[in-house]
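Long-time lurker, finally posting.

We've been working with Oxidoreductase (Actinoplanes friuliensis DSM 7358) and I want a structural starting point before designing mutants. I don't trust myself to interpret raw outputs, so I'm hoping someone here can both generate the structure tokens and explain anything notable. Sequence follows.
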Amino acid sequence: MTYPLAGRPVPRIGYGLRRLASRTAELGETAAIGVLHHAYDLGIRHFDTAEFYDAGLANHLLHAAFQGRRDEVILATKAGARPITGGPAPMTAAQQPHELREAVEANLKSLGTEYLDVVNLRRMDFRPGLLASGDQSVPLEDQLAELTALRDEGKIRAIGLSHVRQNQFEAALPAGITCVQNLYYLLDRSDEPLLTACREAEVAWVPYFPLGDGGPPFNLPKVVDDPVVLAVAADLGVTATQVGLAWQLNHSPNTMLIAGSADPEHLAENLAAADLDLDSATMTRLEAVRS
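Top reply, 14 upvotes:
Generated this for you. Predicted structure of Oxidoreductase:
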């Protein structure tokens, strides 16, 4: 089960580094790197990261885990924010074109690579999350011009978008977009029209928080607590997590997941969702759910 990303067919279940980075102090660096090796051994090839995940720790772990076999994995990172300490959030806006270039250079350095497979432009035009203001309110076309230049220089291979509206996606399409990362899951399908537009344009849809929650400031209702999801899981003899992820994969063929976990058993649980084929009656039952 694959879908094209950055010009390559990639397994539709990938791995997000956010949670692993936040738990590395507890696990220890060697164990955290071991989790990434285990993910690779299970068949995961798409790893989603950001320089602002624990102030570069996520990228450090990826570099340590995959140096020597860089071309075997897809590394997707983000630009548009930079890490800070001591504030209400661990990052702040860095939306200006020169800051996007600086973010790409920082990711190249911390990942120890000559190129980035995907750079997702993280916009900050609406909540939840940070809002750009003042000189950080930058036109999308200026940002795309800088990312296109970086792609032409060979520093990035593909451009993605994160936290965008449908009109922004449509405006960006001529630049060549490989994926969109937006908040979307069973209990919040506000971006269904954008998902449809991505599917029609053959652009990968990479929902963040695919099971809800996400911690502050999101604190989304959890799919695994929904009574319908729990009932379906019991009927099928699987976990609620698997039902929530399988719904995403069955709902649209261009969906690629980046559910992260620091637990090897949870990793295997996540991957097993790819083999869960939900029939039309079950999909109808699930899609009647609303938060």
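Before you design anything, note these points.
The first strand starts at residue 2 and ends at 5.
The CA atoms of residues 250 and 278 lie 7 Å apart.
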